[in-house]
Each structure stands twice: as C-alpha cells, then as structure tokens.
UniProtKB/TrEMBL annotation:
Residues 4-42 form the F-box domain. Pfam families: Beta-prop_KIB1-4, F-box. It comes from the Eukaryota. Coiled coil: none annotated. Residues 65-342 form the KIB1-4 beta-propeller domain. InterPro entries: F-box-like_dom_sf (IPR036047), F-box_BR-signaling (IPR050942), F-box_dom (IPR001810), KIB1-4_b-propeller (IPR005174). Gene3D superfamilies: 1.20.1280.50. This is F-box protein SKIP23.
Length: 372
C-alpha cells in the first residue's frame, strides 16, 4: 500500500477542495509534499461561518480569533496588526488603527494591505493628526479629553468596502468617523479621505447595497451617497416612522432586500445589555414598514462589519433565524455585549463558554475569511 506522502498531486489537490481554512493549514503541515500542494492553492477552502476577530495576546502579540464552524480559538502571528484596534471588516479585510491614529486595510490571512491616509479631524476644533506630533502617546489631555488609546477606538466607528480589493482595484472604502460619525470615503491613489456633506447630525450606520452606499441617520432617514458632481448625501425616501425605544439601528443587505434592524437593550445590575431585536423591511417609496418574524432559516451577523448572512442549514453549528451581534457604537449608554439572538424563541445566548475562554477585553468584529 502506498504511503500518504506518495499520493499524486491531483489526488491531494482534490482532497483540499473539501477542507475548511483551518484544516487546509493542518493539511500543509503533514509533510513537504503536502505543504507544496497546499501552497499551490488550486482549490479554495470550503465556505465557513464568519470568525470573530478578538484582541491580541499580551505576551506573544498574536491576534486571537474564534471560529464558529469548529468552536475553536486560534492565535495567529500578524505583525501588521500589532497594537492596532480593529474598527471594521468587509469582504474578508480588516480596517485597523494604531496608537498614532493611522490606519491600514489588511487581509489578515494573505497579509496583503493598503496604507490609509490620515483620518479627518475627530471634531471641528481638534485635529488629532497634528496633535500626535506634539505630545507622547500616553498624553492624558488628548483630543476632547480622551487618551490616544481611547481615541484609537473612537476615531472610526465603522468601515466597509464596496468590493473585494483582490477582485476590483477600483474599490471604495467608506467610514463613519469622528464625533458625529460623519461619512467619508477613500479610493486607492487618493491622498486623503473625502468627507461627504449633506446631513445634519450624526450617522447610525452605513451599507453598500446594489452598487450604492447608504447612510442611516438617528432620525431613521436613509440617504444615498452621490459622488458626482461632488460628494453629498441625498435623501432616498421619507423618514421611516418608528415608534419604539430601540437603542440602536442597523442597515442589512439580506439577499437583495434592504432591512432595518432594531436593537433593544435593558439593564443587568446597572449595565446595559442586549435583550432583543426587531427586523423590519422598509418600503422607501410608499413609506410602509413590513415586520419580519423570522429570516427564513438564515442567520445574520451584525456589528462593525459589512452585512453578512448565511444559510444556517449549511452549517450544523449555526443557529437558524439567529442574529449574531457585537457592539458597534461608541455611546457609553449602548450595549457593550455580544452573543446570538434567536428570533424563534426570543432568547439570547453566549457564543462560547466564558468558563473555557474568558470574554474579550475589546469587543470583537465579524470577519468572513478570505484566504485566497
């Protein structure tokens, strides 16, 4: 009988077509020949559930991840992410900010990255980019009385992409930044971020939907971003009349349907925690709201990431009609928790046991592994 190491490359490559990303890495560690086959990357890993991007380990500085598919934690050496705060995720890429308030866009598994230009001023009267050159990083009287460690986590609330940079070089990055969650965009080759005008007040969420960027305001008005002749926000429908005490709202692209998700919070020993969600489909033309009582056996993943939805029936460990959530806003009154909400029985459960793995210090971000 032939040894495993003697299997032909065609057979080995075919085997890799059935492997998820972690198993693909293990496959390459078997022997020299198998490692060579794994590096050829003829077949991409099979689809898997999103990963949670956690904080880095203090001693090793490796970045920690949690995989829902196999319920395991992984620690991966990614030097480009050392000391960086993850403020967004889109198409398998991460937006990361360092202590000097500079950012990169990186695929953590291929290590491809883009250097981002300095962010716009946090607020009208303070420009963090000029302050950084004048004071040390532990300066306690920093912008608006925040330390630079706090500013690192506050400068960008959410960041998304129009397309996967590996598939289209003309992609657009859109962020919500600063005191008012103002939208701004950047494209490869731009020397600075371009702020989008046209809205009074702050933003709640941004989404790329059907070839356009949309912005949700706290007044439940949805804007579309017009790039020509000059960048500005334009109202695309009447104000969505909601009569609820939801603390946060999100926009979700669910298989071509634009959904508005309301997040409700309560108090647990004085601390705000998530206690429920409503799923609403707004008809912007007729100003009609349709409430959804389930999501047809799918699962949604919400937070600082672009919209992610999966068919839960394809993944044994995924909860059908589940809303997997992490924290998004920087409001002190917001719910700083994460878990999964079951729309069927209206219960919330933890993603994993804190008795086995301690809860993260920094709230995590969802990431769809984009390993090829």
């Amino acid at each position: 009988m032939a040894a495993w190491s003697d299997l032909t490359n065609d057979v080995l490559e075919y085997i890799t077509s059935f492997l998820a990303f972690p198993d693909h890495c293990r496959f390459g560690a078997v022997c020299k020949n198998w490692r060579s086959v794994s590096k050829s990357r003829r077949y991409p890993p099979i689809p898997q559930l999103p990963w949670l991007v956690l904080e880095e380990e203090k001693e090793t500085r490796k970045r920690k991840f949690y995989s829902l598919s196999d319920a395991k934690h992984y620690s991966i050496e990614i030097p480009e992410l050392h000391g960086r705060y993850i403020c967004g995720s889109s198409h398998g890429w991460l937006f990361a900010v360092d202590i000097k308030i500079t950012g990169i866009l990186i695929n953590p598994f291929t290590r491809e990255f883009f250097e981002l230009p300095p962010f716009p001023p946090f607020c009208k009267d303070v420009n963090v980019n000029t302050l950084i050159e004048k004071v040390p990083s532990d300066y306690m009287g920093g912008p608006r009385d925040y330390t630079f460690e706090e500013m690192q986590a506050r400068i960008v609330t959410k960041a998304i992409l129009s397309h996967d940079p590996k598939e289209r070089s003309d992609f657009t990055a859109m962020i919500m930044f600063g005191e008012m969650n103002t939208p701004a965009f950047w494209r490869p080759g731009d020397l600075c971020w371009t702020v989008v005008d046209g809205q009074d007040g702050s933003s709640y969420d941004i989404i790329y939907f059907k070839e356009n960027f949309y912005v949700l305001s706290p007044a439940n008005v949805i804007y579309v971003v017009d790039f020509e002749p000059e960048p500005k926000l334009r109202v695309v429908g009447p104000q969505i009349e909601l009569y609820s005490d939801a603390l946060e709202q999100y926009l979700i692209d669910f298989d071509g349907n634009l959904l508005l998700i309301e997040r409700f919070c309560g108090l647990d020993e004085g601390n705000p925690i998530t206690n429920g969600f409503d799923v609403i489909e707004p008809n912007l033309e007729e100003n009609i709201l349709y409430e959804w009582y389930d999501i047809d056996g799918y699962a949604l993943f919400m937070g600082r990431n672009s919209s992610i939805f999966v068919n839960a029936s394809h993944f044994p460990t995924c909860k059908k009609n589940g809303i997997y959530f992490t924290h998004i806003t920087k409001s002190k009154s917001a719910c700083h928790d994460f878990g999964v909400y079951d729309m069927t029985d209206k219960t919330i459960s933890k993603l994993y046991s804190f008795e086995v793995f301690p809860p993260p210090v920094v709230l995590p971000v969802w990431l769809t592994p984009n390993t090829w």
